[in-house]
Each structure stands twice: as C-alpha cells, then as structure tokens.
Write a structure and sequence with these properties.
Blueprint (H helix, E strand, L loop, with lengths): L10 H18 L7 E7 L2 E8 L6 H4 L17 H11 L3 E6 L5 E8 L9
Antiparallel strand pairs: 1-2, 2-4, 3-4
Helix pairs in contact: 1-3
C-alpha cells in the first residue's frame, strides 16, 4: 500500500479524472498491454501518473487534446480530457503530458498537499 500524504480533493471528482485517464490509456495501448500507474510526492505535491505504451500522441494533436470536442478516438466526444483538466485545476492542481510519438504517453495529475496553506497551493 502507498503511504501518501492527504490532498484536499472531492473523491468523486477525482474518480472521474482517473477513470478518464485510465480509459484513454487502455484505448491507446495495444491489446494485452499493461497500463502503469504511479504515485509519488514531489515539491509538496502528490503526482499520479498514468502511462501507456500505445502509439503516443501525434505532435499535431498535443496542443489540442485538452480542447473540448477534440478527439483521436472514433467513438469519443472529446470531452474527457477537458473535463479532467477543469476538475484538477479547480482543485489547485495541474495536468501535464509527456508524450513520445510511437512510444506511448503519460499524463500526470499534480495536486497540492492538504497541509499546504491556501497561498502555496
């Protein structure tokens, strides 16, 4: 079990964020692949990363993946990542993308610790 500090977040909203990120990773990765989920503390923040080994995100799509209605999946409305970004930002956090076209992608959710004073979140 992970021994991570507490973040101040709505569990149901965070469930939506991570369900979306994991679903995207599953859709991107080849059948039978593994999805890696890691969590760590860095600079007074909890960082949760979802990584897949799919085809990666094409460079032309990188600046658009968090835009509403942009999608690279045939059966998607393109609302999942924009919703995830909005939720994370409302919690004082960020989402970062690390992509290597052809070698998968990883998306990290960075949330401030609950113990941080509001001005440092």
């Amino acid at each position: 079990p992970l021994d991570l500090p507490t973040v101040r977040a709505d569990p149901e909203q965070m469930r939506k964020v991570f369900l979306n990120l994991i679903t995207n990773a599953i859709q991107a990765a080849p059948r039978g692949s593994q999805i890696e989920i890691t969590a760590a503390v860095k600079d007074q923040r909890v960082v949760v990363t979802v990584r897949d080994n799919g085809p990666g995100i094409p460079s032309k799509a990188v600046n658009e993946i968090f835009e509403p209605f942009f999608t690279t999946h045939e059966r998607s409305l393109g609302l999942g990542l924009p919703m995830a970004l909005r939720i994370v930002q409302e919690h004082g956090g960020t989402i970062t993308l690390d992509r290597t076209h052809g070698e998968g992608a990883s998306i990290s959710v960075v949330l401030p610790l609950a113990s941080l004073p509001p001005e440092q979140r």
